[in-house]
Write a structure and sequence with these properties.
The structure holds two protein chains of two kinds.
Chain A lengths: L15 E3 L3 E3 L2 E3 L9 E3 L7 H6 L8 H13 L9 H5 L14 E3 L4 E3 L1 H13 L9 H12 L15 H11 L10 H5 L6 E2 L2 E2 L10 E3 L4 E3 L1 H10 L11 H13 L9 E3 L1
Chain B lengths: L1 H18 L25 H7 L32 H4 L2 H14 L37 H11 L6
Helix pairs in contact in B: 2-5, 4-5
Classes of the chains: A alpha+beta, B mainly alpha.
């Protein structure tokens, strides 16, 4: 009876500075709660030099088109209250630091919320506007804008306090082997990162780079859309974007990346 | 005449049983190995080689196989399969392909001839729930035999 092999991790040695000024931490000691990892890496380190290059300058980063689109929405009045995001939040730059701490416990709602949930909450209850589709273009562009102003800041998502139960639920989901292929997130992104699975070089599945512009589908992709794709690939019934399960999973996965820099919008294949 | 009929029926039953596949739930494993053919029909190594590269087989997603080096992108999750027939007997290879988790506890390798015990079983790669009809194994009994017939050709000694 053979024993499973141990993971040979081989992210490359490149380092990332965006626009020659924002330096990005793509490798750092793993936080203690990521029990089975000693070092955490951004997904950027597992991509080819060509793909990496797209992210080094905003003029080459196709994800920045989404950021520009969101800038228009930011200042555009929508809904019955006659307000735009700008009316209350000022410049997008005033959101610096927000991406780094989400998902986060929301005292009013009594639950952990994601950036998408916060945006829709403002749209519906504060602007009197229609909510955006959770993984839709307007929403993902807006999350990209909010992320972009936090680039270079360390991900610092809280585990303790009232978020703890949700975090535990996310951890449970991370290690559950789903679908007919019976693979968990951990099987691919913890046990096998650095290895090839068919044509794909497996990363640690970190979400510090979200939203990610994927060369494969030529658009910005949200965290839950990516989760959905990965679960589907195990021949499983996925959870829905925005569902409590995916919110919990996002919280857990985000904390596995505590210490990496916020990188979104990033570029991946 | 009566004897003749009984004899004829017995023959029919025997040959039907022989050609009928062993159900996924009826496969008998002994130390991870499966002694008898699942389909009762000899496997075709050429068909097996194709299954290694496509559909629900796609073994090279995880394994390198030098004999299939004309195909692009071999994965690294499992060990290279070169010389695998020197390491394992036919019943062992059949057991590994049918349900590797019996041979290798907790293996990352999917169980290709199993239909029970899944969590959130989907409808293939749609992301939707499995409809509730009969669950089909990833590979049919004959496809398992075809893959095993191909693996048997992977000898180095």
């Amino acid at each position: 009876v053979m024993m499973p092999g141990t993971a040979v991790s081989d992210p490359d040695d490149d380092s990332l500075t965006i626009n020659g000024e924002i330096s990005i931490v793509t490798e750092v000691e793993a936080p203690a709660h990521a029990e089975n990892l000693s070092t955490i890496y951004s997904g950027w380190r597992f991509r080819s030099d060509e793909t990496q290059a797209f992210q080094m300058d905003d003029f080459d980063n196709p994800g920045m088109i989404g950021v520009e689109n969101a800038m228009v929405n930011w200042e555009t009045v929508d809904g019955t209250e006659g307000k735009s995001c700008e009316s209350c939040h000022g410049a997008p730059e005033d959101m610096a630091g927000v991406r780094a701490v989400y998902p986060k416990w929301n005292e009013d709602k009594g639950k952990v919320t994601t950036l998408e949930m916060e945006v829709n909450n403002c749209r519906e209850t504060r602007m009197g506007a229609e909510k955006w589709k959770y993984t839709g273009g307007d929403m993902t562009d807006m999350v990209a804008l909010i992320s972009s102003v936090s680039r270079g800041m360390p991900v610092d998502v809280a585990i303790d306090g009232p978020a703890k139960a949700t975090w535990e639920q996310g951890k449970e989901l991370y290690y559950t082997r789903t679908g007919q292929l019976e693979l968990s997130c951990a099987n691919c992104h913890e046990d096998s990162y650095g290895m090839m699975i068919r044509a794909d070089h497996l990363s640690q599945g970190q979400i510090n780079g979200f939203p990610t512009y994927r060369l494969k589908n030529t658009k910005l992709n949200s965290v839950h859309a990516r989760f959905k794709g990965c679960v589907r690939d195990t021949r499983a019934e996925t959870y829905k974007p925005g569902s409590p399960e995916f919110v919990a999973l996002e919280l857990y996965v985000a904390t596995r990346g505590n210490g990496l820099s916020v990188e979104g919008p990033s570029v991946r294949n | 005449m009566k004897h003749l009929i009984i004899g004829f029926t017995a023959m029919l039953t025997a040959s039907t049983a022989f050609a009928e596949a062993v159900k996924p739930t009826d496969v008998v494993f002994v130390d991870g190995a499966v002694e008898t053919s699942l389909s009762g029909v000899a496997g075709d190594p050429a068909v097996g080689a194709e299954i290694m590269n496509k559909g629900a087989g796609n073994c090279i997603a995880c394994h390198q196989v030098s004999a299939l080096s004309h195909l692009a992108f071999h994965g690294e999750i499992g060990p290279p399969l070169d010389g695998v027939a020197d390491r394992w007997t036919v019943p062992e290879l059949r057991g590994i392909v049918a349900n590797a988790k019996v041979m290798f506890d907790g293996s990352l390798m999917p169980s290709f001839y199993r239909t029970e015990g899944f969590i959130r079983l989907g409808d293939a790669y749609t992301g939707e729930a499995h409809g509730g009809g009969e669950v089909q194994p990833l590979l049919t009994a004959q496809q398992v035999e075809d893959v095993v017939a191909f693996l048997v050709t992977l000898k180095e000694q």
